[in-house]
């Protein structure tokens, strides 16, 4: 069986020279335009080549009016045909060079644009990987996906659609001013009307456009969250016949998006109309003015120069109209840049930089007077917990819902920090350790195993660099998964589907155990690892867990007390406090809280 899917993709990506992620300090939500320019500035050489190629390829745009005016004057004056042909040859050369220079421009500029998009996505993903678990408790997966996919796409789209018309308008303005200064310098003040008019229109609409785009983005993010929740709740919705309720809830969000989008469309329509009318009116004024001064003799202007001036002003106003019509795209891109900046500026980071790197873990844990209170909570989720877990020991945590079991596990994993007290790992305060290096020696088997859309082999070897077939096979055997994997038509090259949808709960859990085994961890955390399984599947998984736990420091959270009878010690939690500690038989004999929980579960089973 050969490796496939994600692992092969990972190797291919490692061989590629991916653009380095943009530093977060280059992106400032208060100055989105400056942030974009900073990102573009990281590829100055390509930008310079692109700008040179654009300048050369656009020469026909501003020089053809000169040729047109010259030919008209030759015809009006009865000049020679050879002179017309010379002008024609010059036009042909100028037009022919457009193609190669346009390709050079496209290659270099789009490399910059796509590279900027890649840098933004890499920066977002890198920052998201460093954010605390608390951030993800507050944010939906759909919202995070929208930031990485949609917002970066809007920035790329803005750069693609705005840059060409903007540079073109600048080139036309430069060419028009230059040629007019040579041919009819008295007409230069007329051009001064177009730029201020365009700037006034842009400034007038900018503030309203920003607020409408921000409202639209917020509504879209809310709607994306609602759609994500709807998709995840489909089984519950279908089981309880709540399709109409779910549809109505999402339809309400869609209507909010519709209203925000319509208001934005109306604003954009007004911008487009005002821009077009203003620029066309200026163009007509320029033509009439050139004709009047020529007819009255106020300025000596030939018919060809009248056409030249009118054409230049028409090109200029057309370019400015295009730029103004791109105000919606610009505003959307700038708003998306602010959205990206929100994530990159998120301060809720898991601080690991500069802390001590851990190369080896023995698995000796010491919890010293640890308390934890969640934000905006009135009481402690855990209060003054003292506990020592020796290397290789299995300690189980039991208690009713809300007693603090999962919180304690999250504290040891470093997902949340103690409000007071400290946790020592092998004698070192975990607050001073780089937890990323600690977790290399840790494996977690959660209640619901998390599998991605890939093959079984990819899922088991996820994150490992080219694990051998023998290593994968051994993990599958020890996890009691080899038999069902071998029976599949494609073996471990079988694609499991999104979240492992093509496998049973017991099969998914055994693959999660195989994923833990293949890493040979020193510490193992089991969070309700068998609670969602039927008795037959539970027995198979429990047998695999016994092999997984052997010789490793293991912390187990369990509701089913039958799954933790063989734990070295059982810690009973009640309302965030440790009320009992001991082995299964000892706690039953003591007749305390554990005995009460055990009797209740035994009663439920007998009933």
UniProtKB/TrEMBL annotation:
Subcellular location: Cell membrane
Name of this chain's protein: ATP-binding cassette subfamily B protein
Domain ABC transmembrane type-1: 63-332
Domain of life: Bacteria
Swiss-Prot/TrEMBL keywords: ATP-binding, Membrane, Nucleotide-binding, Transmembrane, Transmembrane helix
Higher taxonomy: Bacteria, Bacillati, Actinomycetota, Actinomycetes, Micrococcales
Chief location of this protein within or outside the cell: membrane
Domain (ABC transporter) ranges: 365-600
Organism: Isoptericola halotolerans
Membrane topology type: Multi-pass membrane protein
């Amino acid at each position: 069986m050969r490796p496939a899917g994600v692992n092969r993709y990972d190797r291919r990506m490692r061989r590629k020279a991916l653009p380095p992620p943009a530093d977060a300090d280059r992106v400032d939500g208060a100055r989105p335009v400056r942030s974009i320019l900073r990102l573009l500035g990281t590829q100055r050489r390509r930008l310079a080549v692109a700008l040179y190629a654009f300048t050369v390829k656009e020469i026909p745009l501003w020089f053809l009016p000169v040729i047109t005016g010259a030919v008209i004057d030759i015809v009006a004056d009865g000049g020679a045909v050879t002179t017309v042909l010379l002008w024609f040859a010059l036009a042909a050369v100028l037009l022919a060079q457009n193609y190669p220079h346009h390709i050079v421009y496209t290659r270099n500029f789009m490399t910059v644009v796509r590279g900027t998009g890649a840098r933004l996505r890499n920066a977002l993903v890198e920052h998201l990987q460093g954010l605390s678990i608390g951030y993800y408790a507050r944010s939906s997966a759909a919202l995070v996906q929208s930031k990485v996919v949609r917002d970066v796409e809007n920035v790329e789209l803005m750069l693609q659609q705005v840059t060409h018309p903007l540079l073109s308008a600048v080139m036309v303005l430069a060419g028009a001013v230059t040629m007019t200064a040579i041919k009819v310098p008295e007409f230069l003040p007329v051009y001064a009307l177009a730029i201020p008019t365009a700037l006034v229109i842009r400034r007038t609409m900018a503030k309203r456009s920003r607020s409408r785009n921000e409202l639209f983005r917020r509504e879209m993010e809310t709607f994306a969250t609602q759609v994500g929740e709807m998709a995840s709740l489909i089984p519950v919705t279908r089981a309880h016949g709540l399709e109409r309720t779910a549809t109505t809830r999402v339809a309400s969000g869609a209507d909010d998006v519709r209203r925000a989008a319509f208001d934005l469309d109306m604003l954009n329509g007004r911008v487009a109309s005002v821009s077009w009318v203003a620029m066309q009116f200026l163009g007509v004024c320029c033509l009439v003015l050139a004709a009047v001064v020529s007819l009255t003799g106020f300025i000596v202007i030939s018919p060809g120069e009248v056409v030249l001036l009118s054409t230049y002003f028409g090109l200029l106003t057309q370019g400015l109209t295009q730029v103004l019509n791109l105000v919606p795209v610009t505003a959307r891109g700038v708003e998306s840049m602010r959205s990206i900046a929100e994530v990159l500026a998120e301060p809720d980071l898991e601080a690991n930089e500069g802390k001590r790197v851990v190369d080896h873990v023995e698995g000796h844990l010491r919890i010293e007077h640890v308390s934890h209170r969640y934000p905006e909570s009135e009481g402690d989720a855990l209060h003054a917990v003292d506990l020592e877990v020796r290397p290789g020991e299995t300690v189980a945590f039991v208690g009713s819902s809300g007693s603090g079991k999962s919180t304690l596990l999250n504290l040891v994993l470093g997902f949340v920090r103690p409000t007071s007290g400290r946790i020592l790992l092998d004698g070192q305060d975990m607050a001073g350790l780089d937890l990323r290096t600690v977790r290399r020696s840790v494996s977690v088997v959660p209640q619901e195993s998390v599998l991605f859309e890939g093959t079984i082999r990819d899922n088991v070897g996820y994150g490992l660099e080219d694990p051998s077939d023998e290593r994968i096979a051994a993990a599958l055997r020890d996890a009691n998964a080899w038999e069902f994997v071998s029976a599949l038509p494609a073996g471990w090259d079988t694609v499991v589907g999104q979240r492992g949808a093509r496998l049973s709960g017991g099969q998914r859990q055994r693959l999660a155990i195989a994923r833990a085994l293949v890493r040979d961890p020193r510490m193992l955390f089991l969070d309700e690892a068998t609670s969602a399984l039927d008795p037959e599947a539970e027995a198979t998984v429990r047998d695999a867990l016994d092999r997984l736990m052997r010789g490793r420091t293991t912390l187990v959270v369990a509701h089913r007390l039958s799954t933790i009878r063989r734990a070295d010690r059982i810690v009973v939690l009640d309302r965030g406090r440790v009320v009992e500690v001991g082995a299964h038989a000892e706690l039953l004999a003591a007749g305390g809280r554990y005995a009460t929980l055990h009797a209740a579960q035994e009663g439920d089973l007998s009933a």
